Amino acid sequence: MTSGEVRVTRRHWWAWAVVALVVAAAVAPLVHTWLTNADDQRLVDLDVYRTGGQMLLDGRPVYDYFTPAPQLLPFTYPPIAAMLAVALAEMSWSTAQWVWTAGIFVALAVTVGFAFRPALRKHVPWVFAFLMIACTYLMPIRDQVRFGQVDILLVALCLADCVAKRPWWPRGFLIGLATAVKLTPGVFLIYLLVTRQWRTLAMAVFAAAVLTLLPFAVIPQDAADFWFSALLDPERLGANAATTNQSIRGMLIRLYMPDLLTSAIWVVIVAVVGWYGFRGARDAYEAKDPITAVALVGLMAVLLSPVAWIHHLAWVVVVLGAIVGDGRDPVRLRVAAGVWLFYVVPVPWWGVSLIAAKIPGVSLVFGKIVQNGFGLGALVLVWLLVSWLPKRREIA
Predict the structure, then answer these.
(1) What's residue 168's pLDDT?
(2) CA 91 vs CA 85, 272, 301, 396: distances in Å
């Protein structure tokens, strides 16, 4: 290596060090807000994970406990998640908060790096810093920090498994791990099936199966409690009609139709959206655009699930990467900016306020549409990635 090459390398690392400081300074207000609020409101989902691990350490039933009032939240994840959470239980509450929050930003960095890879090839590290800051303030990502959620980690696992060029792990293993921990990433098994990635599918199924069966050998009663009881109770996840449930089913429930009619309509819409979305993902994969394919499958995980909270829409980071592409099309950049802004502002809560205002002839109908804004927006994003984006590629 020449002296010139050494100087370039040093400048490169200095640039990344400065970028890290800039990003840390930009996200500090968000982190400070949620790590210094009232203790019983702080990182409440992390408290669920950590307490699940503590139940195993104490030899108590994982699925019988609730976190302390006022939250009263049960453990809703598969038993392998409780086993992994033992590491969190071994930490103090203060340490766990900082470790988990740092993990959220590491996962976000991995997601941004992969999702925006085509645009970053010639524009790192400063564009990376900009993208990290912009994505941090998306409402689904802000909620990752607010609640101490695991979603962005699952996004990073599935995205890396699908788009890493030469992974050092067996491709498919990370999807299997994510599926075993939170079930909804299981939509990627369908994606691997329709794209005929047989070896990756086999590894993903194998990993998910092993991690699902392992608890039956280690904590058999908890495993049975989850699969034959807790999993069958959708109300354990929270009020399904709550505004924050932006899945197709959540939007339909808020129309307050008879349950049978709601279920029938839901099945039909899920079938149509699933067919359209997975077909689009297959086409994107065949067009050698795996980022768009992953974005579509991630949106399927949100829309087709019976319950999908706003923080589950962390997949919007990958959607933005798919829309931006290599960053050379100004139209795609403007569309991406519009999508970013839409998911930064609290659109669904504006709908709640509009409904409460009771403006004759406006509040109820328009309010319901706005209340379902993030879910309806996700449907628009599916269309955008399946139908609009290929046409932009042809024009470009």
Answers:
(1) 94
(2) 10, 46, 32, 52
